[in-house]
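Researcher: Hi, I'm a grad student and pretty new to this. My advisor asked me to get structures for two proteins we've been looking at. I'm not sure of the right format, so I'll just paste the first sequence and hope you can take it from there.
Model: That works fine. Here's the first sequence with its structure tokens right after it:
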Amino acid sequence: MLRHWYYSLLMLVTYVSVFLFWKQFPSRVNFVVGGVVAVTLLTAGLAWAWRRKYFVNRIDLCLHGYIIADLCLESVLFEVLRLFNGAQVTAELVSRFHHNNNYILCTITLATLLGGYRFYALRRANIANLASSALAGTRDTADTWKDRTESVGA
């Protein structure tokens, strides 16, 4: 079962880790560098997972991409705001920008959205495979269920 969830769990851990990093070391450079490094690694992981056929469908792929885009936006948003507001941005604002705990609610929301959809899509793919195998009469449904659950995302 873990092989159906390894990339999603990696994204969750990375997402929370980046926010904890920002909270522990609040500086403009760390916001940008930490975010860019995390986004680069997750994007490379997304391409790797896509080549390995990890994603159940396009919606699953897009939800994973959305989380990467959210992290990218979070990491550069402060600098974009600073460009438009100029000198009004102070070190105190830098600290407050990611020093709150709002990321916890965001993490829970994204994990629920992605995890809920992924669970639904994996079950639906398993049931569709069982139905097509049963209609074709090619294999016993218990064997098909076992094979399908082992092959999805591998």
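Researcher: Oh nice, that was easy. Here's the second one.
Model: And its structure:
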Amino acid sequence: MKRNKWIIFLLTLTFLFIYLVFKYSYLVGFCEQSDYKCRLEMNQWLFVFSFAPFLFIASIISLLLPNRYFESWLRFAWWGGLVVIGNFVYIHVFATSQPGDMFAGMFDNLIILSAYTFFVLGSLIQLGRTYRARKN
């Protein structure tokens, strides 16, 4: 199980690196800072990988967990992660508003924040349930 922890950690470290490359693409040399079209495309990719910092924090915490708690959390994280990724896909692909729409993108951050809140609270509840089950 220790190997799974490190695999998850390295994957999230890779996602964090990709996130930072898209965030600072003008420093890496992908785009000029004044190139609007390139920056717009990089911002779209940045939006796709915006879960990376939060996932990185969760993976650091999971490295410190004992194996029984990690296994319990991992079972939840598979489903919780799918919900978060599903919200990103919904916002990025299906919820694009028509040009001139007054509410274009107004609720995107609220949906993303609710997905992250669901994931964090669900993780804490799952860890608490595992702790209580082991305690009894």
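Researcher: Is there anything I should tell my advisor about the second?
Model: You could mention this: The chain has a mean pLDDT of 77.
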